[in-house]
Amino acid sequence: MNLPPMVTPRAFARLAEINAGGPGPALRVAVLGGGCSGFQYDIRMDEPAAEDLVLEGEGQRVVVDPVSLPFLAGARIDWSDELIGARFVIDNPNASSSCGCGTSFSI
């Protein structure tokens, strides 16, 4: 059985900041075909659908659709705030390679 993705406390805390501490839209993490390495992440605010996996923490939600779930099995969703920029990042053990920007990968 594949492990579901996990969301770090730092990512949930940033999502709570975005939603001003209250319940708000969920952070959707999806995998789409394309990008410079074959697949790319689609990270956006969205409402959960009935078939989504919902990960909850700090009163916030991160959702993954059933098609993207196998590509994100065991992945770690985190928040990175560095000099080069701040963004949600995905550490994906399924990716055999990724591009420099971190939004495109291959399996």
UniProtKB/TrEMBL annotation:
Source organism, top-level taxon: Bacteria
PROSITE patterns referenced in this protein's UniProt entry, alphabetically: HESB
A Pfam match: Fe-S_biosyn
Gene Ontology molecular functions: 2 iron, 2 sulfur cluster binding; 4 iron, 4 sulfur cluster binding; iron ion binding
Biological processes, Gene Ontology terms: iron-sulfur cluster assembly
Domain Core: 7-102
UniProt xrefs under Gene3D superfamilies: HesB-like domain
Family annotation (InterPro entries): ATAP, ATAP_core_dom, FeS_cluster_insertion_CS, HesB-like_dom_sf
PANTHER family linked to this entry: IRON-SULFUR CLUSTER ASSEMBLY 2 HOMOLOG, MITOCHONDRIAL (PTHR43011:SF1)
NCBIfam families for the chain: iron-sulfur cluster assembly accessory protein (TIGR00049)
Protein name: Iron-sulfur cluster assembly accessory protein
Protein's organism: Paracoccus chinensis
